[in-house]
Amino acid sequence: MSSLSTAPTADSLSSTDPLMLVDVDHVRFYVGNAKQAAFFYASAFGFQVEQVSDLTTGSRTSAQYLLTQGNIRFILETALTSDHPVAEECRKYGDGVKDVALTVLDAERAWEQARRNGGESAYEPRTISDANGSVTMAGIKTYGRAIHSFVSRTGAYALPNIKQGATFAPGFRPMGTFSLNAWNKANPCGLKFVDHCVGNVELGKMNHWVKWYEDVMGFKMFKHFDEKDISTEYSALMSKVMASGNHLIKMPINEPAAGKKKSQIQEYLEWHGMAAGVQHLALRTDDELHSVAELRRRGVDFLALPDAYYESVWNRVDTMLRQHGHEVVKEDHQRVKDLGILVDADDEGYLLQLFTKPLQDRPTLFFEIICRRGSQSFGKGNFKALFEALEIEQERRGNL
Q1: Is 160 within 8 Å of 172 (Cβ atoms)?
Q2: Closest Cα partner for 369 from 282, 242, 263?
Q3: Domain 10-186: which CATH class?
Q4: pTM exceeding 0.85
Q5: pLDDT tens per residue across span 318-334
Q6: Which one is the CATH code of 191-397: 3.10.180.10, 2.60.40.10, 3.40.710.10, 3.40.50.1820?
Q7: What is the dihedral sign for C-alpha 114, 115, 119, 123?
Q8: d(Cα 199, Cα 202) in Å, to the nearest integer?
Protein backbone atom coordinates (compact mmCIF):
# COMPACT_ATOMS: atom_id res chain seq x y z
CA MET A 1 0.00 0.00 0.00
CA SER A 2 1.50 3.21 -1.10
CA SER A 3 2.18 6.58 0.39
CA LEU A 4 0.32 9.81 -0.16
CA SER A 5 3.18 11.12 -2.26
CA THR A 6 3.12 8.21 -4.71
CA ALA A 7 -0.59 7.43 -4.80
CA PRO A 8 -2.12 8.37 -8.17
CA THR A 9 -4.69 11.12 -8.39
CA ALA A 10 -8.19 10.55 -9.65
CA ASP A 11 -7.41 12.60 -12.77
CA SER A 12 -4.60 10.21 -13.69
CA LEU A 13 -6.81 7.11 -13.58
CA SER A 14 -8.64 5.70 -16.55
CA SER A 15 -12.39 6.08 -16.21
CA THR A 16 -12.76 2.94 -18.34
CA ASP A 17 -11.51 0.70 -15.51
CA PRO A 18 -13.73 0.98 -12.43
CA LEU A 19 -11.30 -1.13 -10.37
CA MET A 20 -8.43 1.34 -10.70
CA LEU A 21 -7.54 2.16 -7.09
CA VAL A 22 -6.93 5.70 -5.84
CA ASP A 23 -5.73 4.88 -2.31
CA VAL A 24 -6.43 2.88 0.82
CA ASP A 25 -9.48 4.69 2.14
CA HIS A 26 -9.37 3.14 5.62
CA VAL A 27 -8.93 -0.11 7.54
CA ARG A 28 -11.96 -1.08 9.63
CA PHE A 29 -11.54 -3.06 12.85
CA TYR A 30 -14.40 -4.81 14.61
CA VAL A 31 -13.74 -4.50 18.34
CA GLY A 32 -15.52 -5.30 21.58
CA ASN A 33 -15.19 -1.78 23.01
CA ALA A 34 -14.26 0.96 20.55
CA LYS A 35 -13.78 3.65 23.18
CA GLN A 36 -11.23 1.57 25.06
CA ALA A 37 -9.58 0.31 21.86
CA ALA A 38 -9.19 3.91 20.66
CA PHE A 39 -7.42 4.78 23.90
CA PHE A 40 -5.09 1.78 23.46
CA TYR A 41 -4.07 2.62 19.88
CA ALA A 42 -3.65 6.28 20.78
CA SER A 43 -1.56 5.53 23.86
CA ALA A 44 0.54 2.67 22.48
CA PHE A 45 0.94 3.66 18.82
CA GLY A 46 0.48 7.42 18.79
CA PHE A 47 -2.73 7.64 16.76
CA GLN A 48 -4.88 10.75 16.81
CA VAL A 49 -8.45 10.01 17.89
CA GLU A 50 -9.95 12.45 15.41
CA GLN A 51 -13.68 11.79 15.06
CA VAL A 52 -16.52 9.69 16.42
CA SER A 53 -19.94 8.46 15.34
CA ASP A 54 -21.98 7.20 18.29
CA LEU A 55 -25.15 7.80 20.31
CA THR A 56 -24.30 11.49 20.53
CA THR A 57 -24.40 11.81 16.74
CA GLY A 58 -27.55 9.76 16.27
CA SER A 59 -26.05 6.32 15.65
CA ARG A 60 -28.19 3.80 17.55
CA THR A 61 -26.61 0.54 16.37
CA SER A 62 -22.81 0.94 16.50
CA ALA A 63 -20.10 3.35 17.61
CA GLN A 64 -17.19 4.21 15.32
CA TYR A 65 -13.95 6.04 16.08
CA LEU A 66 -11.69 7.45 13.37
CA LEU A 67 -7.98 7.19 14.22
CA THR A 68 -5.34 8.80 12.02
CA GLN A 69 -1.57 9.00 11.71
CA GLY A 70 0.14 10.14 8.53
CA ASN A 71 -1.92 8.63 5.69
CA ILE A 72 -3.21 5.82 7.94
CA ARG A 73 -6.92 5.84 8.75
CA PHE A 74 -8.37 3.24 11.12
CA ILE A 75 -12.07 2.93 11.89
CA LEU A 76 -12.74 1.11 15.17
CA GLU A 77 -16.34 -0.10 15.28
CA THR A 78 -18.20 -1.70 18.16
CA ALA A 79 -21.79 -2.90 18.47
CA LEU A 80 -24.33 -1.01 20.57
CA THR A 81 -26.88 -3.81 20.36
CA SER A 82 -26.50 -7.53 20.95
CA ASP A 83 -27.89 -8.46 17.52
CA HIS A 84 -25.51 -6.25 15.56
CA PRO A 85 -23.12 -8.16 13.19
CA VAL A 86 -20.10 -6.63 14.96
CA ALA A 87 -21.19 -8.25 18.23
CA GLU A 88 -21.40 -11.68 16.63
CA GLU A 89 -18.02 -11.39 14.89
CA CYS A 90 -16.29 -10.22 18.06
CA ARG A 91 -17.77 -13.18 19.90
CA LYS A 92 -16.44 -15.59 17.28
CA TYR A 93 -13.11 -14.01 16.38
CA GLY A 94 -12.21 -11.38 18.97
CA ASP A 95 -10.95 -7.96 17.92
CA GLY A 96 -9.54 -7.83 14.41
CA VAL A 97 -9.56 -6.37 10.93
CA LYS A 98 -12.83 -6.71 9.04
CA ASP A 99 -12.37 -4.45 6.02
CA VAL A 100 -9.49 -3.10 3.95
CA ALA A 101 -11.45 -0.34 2.18
CA LEU A 102 -10.23 1.06 -1.14
CA THR A 103 -10.98 4.45 -2.64
CA VAL A 104 -12.19 4.26 -6.26
CA LEU A 105 -13.75 6.77 -8.65
CA ASP A 106 -17.18 5.09 -8.58
CA ALA A 107 -17.90 2.57 -5.82
CA GLU A 108 -21.04 1.15 -7.46
CA ARG A 109 -19.29 0.55 -10.77
CA ALA A 110 -16.29 -1.05 -9.03
CA TRP A 111 -18.60 -3.36 -7.08
CA GLU A 112 -20.49 -4.30 -10.23
CA GLN A 113 -17.23 -5.04 -12.06
CA ALA A 114 -15.91 -7.16 -9.17
CA ARG A 115 -19.14 -9.16 -9.23
CA ARG A 116 -18.88 -9.67 -13.00
CA ASN A 117 -15.33 -10.89 -12.36
CA GLY A 118 -16.67 -13.60 -10.05
CA GLY A 119 -16.66 -11.84 -6.67
CA GLU A 120 -19.40 -12.34 -4.08
CA SER A 121 -21.13 -9.30 -2.65
CA ALA A 122 -20.61 -8.50 1.03
CA TYR A 123 -23.15 -5.68 0.88
CA GLU A 124 -24.84 -3.70 -1.87
CA PRO A 125 -24.00 -0.09 -2.72
CA ARG A 126 -25.25 2.48 -0.22
CA THR A 127 -24.84 6.23 -0.15
CA ILE A 128 -24.92 8.57 2.82
CA SER A 129 -25.06 12.26 2.03
CA ASP A 130 -25.84 15.71 3.36
CA ALA A 131 -25.54 19.26 2.09
CA ASN A 132 -21.72 18.97 2.10
CA GLY A 133 -21.32 15.90 -0.12
CA SER A 134 -21.68 12.14 -0.16
CA VAL A 135 -19.91 8.85 0.53
CA THR A 136 -20.85 5.72 -1.44
CA MET A 137 -19.65 2.30 -0.28
CA ALA A 138 -20.13 -1.24 -1.57
CA GLY A 139 -18.46 -4.43 -0.30
CA ILE A 140 -17.03 -7.59 -1.83
CA LYS A 141 -16.07 -10.70 0.18
CA THR A 142 -12.48 -11.90 0.20
CA TYR A 143 -10.90 -14.65 2.35
CA GLY A 144 -12.66 -15.75 5.55
CA ARG A 145 -14.25 -12.92 7.50
CA ALA A 146 -12.47 -10.18 5.54
CA ILE A 147 -13.99 -7.88 2.92
CA HIS A 148 -12.92 -5.07 0.63
CA SER A 149 -15.19 -2.05 0.53
CA PHE A 150 -15.06 0.21 -2.51
CA VAL A 151 -15.45 3.85 -1.47
CA SER A 152 -16.17 6.90 -3.63
CA ARG A 153 -16.49 10.41 -2.21
CA THR A 154 -17.83 13.77 -3.35
CA GLY A 155 -17.82 17.36 -2.10
CA ALA A 156 -16.41 18.00 1.34
CA TYR A 157 -15.98 14.23 1.83
CA ALA A 158 -13.55 13.84 -1.10
CA LEU A 159 -10.39 11.97 -0.16
CA PRO A 160 -8.00 14.97 -0.46
CA ASN A 161 -10.17 16.78 2.09
CA ILE A 162 -10.23 13.73 4.40
CA LYS A 163 -6.43 13.64 4.31
CA GLN A 164 -6.45 17.25 5.53
CA GLY A 165 -8.71 16.44 8.48
CA ALA A 166 -12.19 17.03 7.04
CA THR A 167 -15.20 15.15 8.40
CA PHE A 168 -14.84 11.47 7.44
CA ALA A 169 -18.49 10.92 6.50
CA PRO A 170 -21.95 12.23 7.38
CA GLY A 171 -22.73 11.28 10.97
CA PHE A 172 -19.20 11.82 12.30
CA ARG A 173 -18.17 14.69 14.57
CA PRO A 174 -14.79 15.92 15.85
CA MET A 175 -13.62 14.10 18.95
CA GLY A 176 -13.20 17.34 20.89
CA THR A 177 -10.89 17.52 23.88
CA PHE A 178 -8.79 14.36 24.14
CA SER A 179 -5.55 14.84 26.03
CA LEU A 180 -3.65 12.07 24.28
CA ASN A 181 -4.01 13.90 20.96
CA ALA A 182 -1.88 16.80 22.17
CA TRP A 183 0.64 14.41 23.72
CA ASN A 184 0.92 12.42 20.48
CA LYS A 185 1.48 15.55 18.40
CA ALA A 186 4.32 16.53 20.72
CA ASN A 187 5.72 12.98 20.80
CA PRO A 188 5.16 11.52 17.31
CA CYS A 189 5.68 7.86 16.49
CA GLY A 190 6.30 8.65 12.83
CA LEU A 191 4.01 6.05 11.21
CA LYS A 192 3.16 7.15 7.65
CA PHE A 193 0.91 4.66 5.84
CA VAL A 194 0.00 0.98 5.51
CA ASP A 195 2.79 -0.75 3.58
CA HIS A 196 1.03 -4.09 3.16
CA CYS A 197 -1.69 -6.27 4.68
CA VAL A 198 -1.09 -9.99 5.29
CA GLY A 199 -3.86 -12.60 5.25
CA ASN A 200 -3.75 -16.12 6.70
CA VAL A 201 -5.82 -18.73 4.83
CA GLU A 202 -6.53 -22.41 5.35
CA LEU A 203 -4.25 -25.23 4.17
CA GLY A 204 -4.57 -25.66 0.43
CA LYS A 205 -6.40 -22.35 -0.11
CA MET A 206 -3.53 -20.00 -0.96
CA ASN A 207 -3.64 -20.59 -4.71
CA HIS A 208 -7.42 -20.23 -4.68
CA TRP A 209 -7.13 -16.74 -3.22
CA VAL A 210 -4.19 -15.86 -5.46
CA LYS A 211 -6.44 -16.61 -8.44
CA TRP A 212 -9.29 -14.67 -6.79
CA TYR A 213 -7.15 -11.53 -6.52
CA GLU A 214 -6.05 -11.99 -10.12
CA ASP A 215 -9.53 -12.60 -11.52
CA VAL A 216 -11.74 -10.43 -9.32
CA MET A 217 -9.45 -7.53 -8.40
CA GLY A 218 -7.00 -7.54 -11.30
CA PHE A 219 -3.93 -8.02 -9.06
CA LYS A 220 -0.70 -9.73 -10.13
CA MET A 221 1.89 -11.88 -8.36
CA PHE A 222 4.61 -9.69 -6.82
CA LYS A 223 6.67 -12.14 -4.73
CA HIS A 224 6.53 -15.85 -3.89
CA PHE A 225 8.00 -17.64 -0.85
CA ASP A 226 7.75 -21.38 -0.20
CA GLU A 227 8.55 -23.67 2.71
CA LYS A 228 12.26 -23.58 1.78
CA ASP A 229 12.25 -19.82 2.35
CA ILE A 230 10.05 -19.71 5.46
CA SER A 231 10.81 -22.62 7.76
CA THR A 232 12.51 -23.69 10.96
CA GLU A 233 13.21 -27.05 12.55
CA TYR A 234 9.58 -27.21 13.67
CA SER A 235 7.26 -25.32 11.32
CA ALA A 236 6.89 -23.73 7.91
CA LEU A 237 4.53 -21.71 5.76
CA MET A 238 4.09 -20.61 2.17
CA SER A 239 3.30 -17.09 1.03
CA LYS A 240 2.43 -15.30 -2.21
CA VAL A 241 2.34 -11.51 -2.42
CA MET A 242 -0.39 -10.04 -4.61
CA ALA A 243 -0.19 -6.45 -5.81
CA SER A 244 -2.51 -4.12 -7.68
CA GLY A 245 -1.44 -3.02 -11.14
CA ASN A 246 0.24 0.15 -9.89
CA HIS A 247 1.61 -1.62 -6.77
CA LEU A 248 -0.52 0.69 -4.64
CA ILE A 249 -1.92 -2.27 -2.71
CA LYS A 250 0.13 -5.29 -1.60
CA MET A 251 -1.66 -8.27 -0.06
CA PRO A 252 0.59 -11.22 0.96
CA ILE A 253 -1.39 -14.44 1.44
CA ASN A 254 -0.06 -17.14 3.80
CA GLU A 255 -1.03 -20.77 4.26
CA PRO A 256 0.42 -23.39 6.64
CA ALA A 257 2.96 -25.93 5.39
CA ALA A 258 3.84 -29.33 6.81
CA GLY A 259 6.18 -29.26 9.82
CA LYS A 260 7.05 -31.20 12.95
CA LYS A 261 4.89 -28.88 15.03
CA LYS A 262 2.14 -26.29 14.57
CA SER A 263 2.92 -23.24 12.44
CA GLN A 264 1.97 -19.72 13.47
CA ILE A 265 -0.58 -19.74 10.62
CA GLN A 266 -2.31 -22.79 12.04
CA GLU A 267 -2.24 -21.25 15.51
CA TYR A 268 -3.90 -18.12 14.10
CA LEU A 269 -6.63 -20.17 12.41
CA GLU A 270 -7.38 -22.22 15.51
CA TRP A 271 -7.80 -19.06 17.62
CA HIS A 272 -9.77 -17.36 14.85
CA GLY A 273 -12.65 -19.80 14.64
CA MET A 274 -10.81 -21.67 11.84
CA ALA A 275 -11.67 -18.72 9.61
CA ALA A 276 -9.14 -16.99 7.37
CA GLY A 277 -8.42 -13.37 8.16
CA VAL A 278 -5.93 -10.53 8.36
CA GLN A 279 -2.84 -11.60 10.31
CA HIS A 280 -0.96 -8.32 10.39
CA LEU A 281 -0.73 -4.80 9.05
CA ALA A 282 2.71 -3.45 8.14
CA LEU A 283 2.96 0.25 8.99
CA ARG A 284 5.64 2.26 7.16
CA THR A 285 7.98 4.72 8.82
CA ASP A 286 10.80 6.84 7.41
CA ASP A 287 12.86 6.39 10.61
CA GLU A 288 12.73 2.88 12.06
CA LEU A 289 14.97 3.70 15.02
CA HIS A 290 12.89 6.66 16.11
CA SER A 291 9.57 4.87 15.65
CA VAL A 292 10.59 1.68 17.46
CA ALA A 293 12.24 3.63 20.29
CA GLU A 294 9.10 5.72 20.81
CA LEU A 295 6.81 2.68 20.63
CA ARG A 296 8.97 0.81 23.13
CA ARG A 297 8.88 3.85 25.42
CA ARG A 298 5.09 3.68 25.24
CA GLY A 299 5.12 0.03 26.31
CA VAL A 300 4.56 -1.77 22.99
CA ASP A 301 5.62 -5.43 23.21
CA PHE A 302 7.81 -6.62 20.33
CA LEU A 303 9.16 -10.05 19.49
CA ALA A 304 12.62 -10.62 20.97
CA LEU A 305 15.54 -11.89 18.88
CA PRO A 306 18.60 -13.75 20.22
CA ASP A 307 21.88 -11.82 20.31
CA ALA A 308 23.28 -14.40 17.90
CA TYR A 309 21.18 -12.84 15.13
CA TYR A 310 23.42 -9.76 15.13
CA GLU A 311 26.64 -11.80 14.94
CA SER A 312 25.99 -12.51 11.25
CA VAL A 313 23.41 -10.02 10.01
CA TRP A 314 25.76 -7.15 9.20
CA ASN A 315 28.10 -9.22 7.08
CA ARG A 316 25.17 -10.76 5.21
CA VAL A 317 23.35 -7.48 4.61
CA ASP A 318 26.33 -5.24 3.82
CA THR A 319 27.83 -7.86 1.48
CA MET A 320 24.56 -8.01 -0.45
CA LEU A 321 24.37 -4.22 -0.68
CA ARG A 322 27.95 -3.85 -1.93
CA GLN A 323 27.42 -6.58 -4.52
CA HIS A 324 24.61 -4.54 -6.03
CA GLY A 325 26.34 -1.18 -5.82
CA HIS A 326 24.39 0.19 -2.85
CA GLU A 327 25.66 1.97 0.23
CA VAL A 328 25.75 -0.11 3.41
CA VAL A 329 23.22 0.29 6.22
CA LYS A 330 23.46 3.88 7.45
CA GLU A 331 21.67 3.35 10.77
CA ASP A 332 23.84 2.91 13.86
CA HIS A 333 24.45 -0.83 14.21
CA GLN A 334 24.57 -0.88 17.99
CA ARG A 335 21.36 1.13 18.21
CA VAL A 336 19.66 -1.30 15.82
CA LYS A 337 20.71 -4.19 18.06
CA ASP A 338 19.69 -2.39 21.26
CA LEU A 339 16.20 -1.81 19.82
CA GLY A 340 15.95 -5.42 18.57
CA ILE A 341 15.32 -4.42 14.94
CA LEU A 342 15.70 -6.88 12.05
CA VAL A 343 17.62 -5.90 8.88
CA ASP A 344 17.54 -7.42 5.41
CA ALA A 345 18.77 -6.52 1.91
CA ASP A 346 18.15 -7.39 -1.72
CA ASP A 347 19.28 -6.10 -5.11
CA GLU A 348 17.30 -2.87 -4.66
CA GLY A 349 18.47 -1.85 -1.19
CA TYR A 350 17.68 -2.73 2.40
CA LEU A 351 14.87 -2.61 4.92
CA LEU A 352 14.44 -2.53 8.68
CA GLN A 353 11.48 -4.22 10.35
CA LEU A 354 10.12 -5.34 13.70
CA PHE A 355 6.97 -7.19 14.70
CA THR A 356 4.79 -6.65 17.73
CA LYS A 357 3.36 -9.45 19.78
CA PRO A 358 -0.40 -10.02 19.32
CA LEU A 359 -2.41 -6.89 20.09
CA GLN A 360 -5.13 -8.78 21.96
CA ASP A 361 -5.35 -11.87 24.17
CA ARG A 362 -6.06 -14.24 21.30
CA PRO A 363 -2.81 -14.83 19.34
CA THR A 364 -4.12 -13.34 16.10
CA LEU A 365 -3.65 -9.77 14.81
CA PHE A 366 -0.32 -7.94 15.20
CA PHE A 367 1.53 -5.02 13.59
CA GLU A 368 4.83 -4.78 11.72
CA ILE A 369 6.84 -1.56 11.76
CA ILE A 370 8.83 -1.31 8.53
CA CYS A 371 11.25 1.17 6.96
CA ARG A 372 12.39 0.74 3.35
CA ARG A 373 15.72 2.00 2.06
CA GLY A 374 15.14 0.88 -1.52
CA SER A 375 14.19 -2.74 -0.85
CA GLN A 376 10.67 -3.69 -1.94
CA SER A 377 10.83 -7.19 -0.49
CA PHE A 378 9.55 -8.50 2.84
CA GLY A 379 12.64 -9.54 4.80
CA LYS A 380 13.30 -13.00 3.34
CA GLY A 381 16.68 -13.17 5.07
CA ASN A 382 14.95 -12.66 8.44
CA PHE A 383 12.33 -15.38 8.08
CA LYS A 384 14.18 -18.07 10.01
CA ALA A 385 15.12 -15.79 12.93
CA LEU A 386 11.62 -14.32 13.00
CA PHE A 387 9.88 -17.67 13.02
CA GLU A 388 12.13 -19.02 15.75
CA ALA A 389 11.16 -15.98 17.84
CA LEU A 390 7.49 -16.63 17.06
CA GLU A 391 7.85 -20.28 18.07
CA ILE A 392 9.23 -19.24 21.46
CA GLU A 393 6.06 -17.20 21.99
CA GLN A 394 3.86 -20.05 20.72
CA GLU A 395 5.49 -22.43 23.17
CA ARG A 396 4.90 -19.96 26.04
CA ARG A 397 1.21 -19.94 25.05
CA GLY A 398 1.10 -23.75 24.86
CA ASN A 399 0.27 -23.69 21.14
CA LEU A 400 3.42 -24.98 19.41
Answers
A1: no
A2: 282
A3: alpha beta
A4: yes
A5: 999 999 999 999 999 99
A6: 3.10.180.10
A7: positive
A8: 10
